[in-house]
Amino acid sequence: MAASRPQWHIAGEYFENCNCKVVCPCLLSPNPPLASKPTEGDCKTAFAFVIYYFDERANEQQRRALVAIFTGTAGGPLGAWASLISTVLGTKIVPINFNVAGKRRSVEIPNIMHVAVQPLPSLDPDNEIWTLNAHPFSPKVALAVADQNMAWTDYGMSWDNSGKHGYYAPINWSST
């Protein structure tokens, strides 16, 4: 008898910043999704829900469930991405400050990460540029750009995607 996957549901906010020039061809190009090469040759992406860090307020059961969800082993939207995850470097329990202020999203992990994105400029300064059916994390994502002081340094690696591509959106995921 095959083991059944647990039922789960996550809702909230998400954003990302990668090292591509605006706009990332992995999802928006004439090729099928995930078939184009990143504009900078490789992909260095920071997601605000990166599984290598857990907010210190999460308990052990929540951390185990999040590892299963974000590695794709629990199914759901990230299940299709599981084959793209070659190495999980580990997890760390840290203080995380995730902030949504108007159209700006930011995440701060002291001495590790500062990432903030805001919408790309549009003809209507009161509204973002939204794409539909272009991203596996949400059916509707806003095109964004990172602040000039983006930084991530950990695990012997360091990224600076300042001024580069990003997205943000509400998420509503489940195992079904």
Structure description:
Strands 1, 2, 5, 6, 7, 8, 9, 10, 11 and 12 form a 10-stranded antiparallel β-sheet that branches. With 176 residues, the chain is mainly beta. The protein has one domain. β8 (130-132) and β9 (140-146) form a beta hairpin. The chain has one helix at 60-70, and strands at residues 9-18, 45-47, 53-55, 92-94, 97-101, 104-109, 113-119, 130-132, 140-146, 151-154, 157-159, 165-174.
Distance between the termini: 20 Å
Shape, per Cα inertia axes: globular
Gyration radius, to the nearest Å?
Answer: 16 Å
Mean pLDDT: 85
How does the helix and strand content classify structurally?
A: mainly beta
The helix/strand order is: EEEHEEEEEEEEE
Helix content: under 10%
Total beta-strand segments: 12
Largest sheet: 10 strands, antiparallel
Number of domains: 1
Pick out the low-confidence regions.
none
Beta-strand content estimate: 35-45%
Top keywords for this entry?
single chain; 176 residues; mainly beta; two-stranded parallel sheet; 1 helix
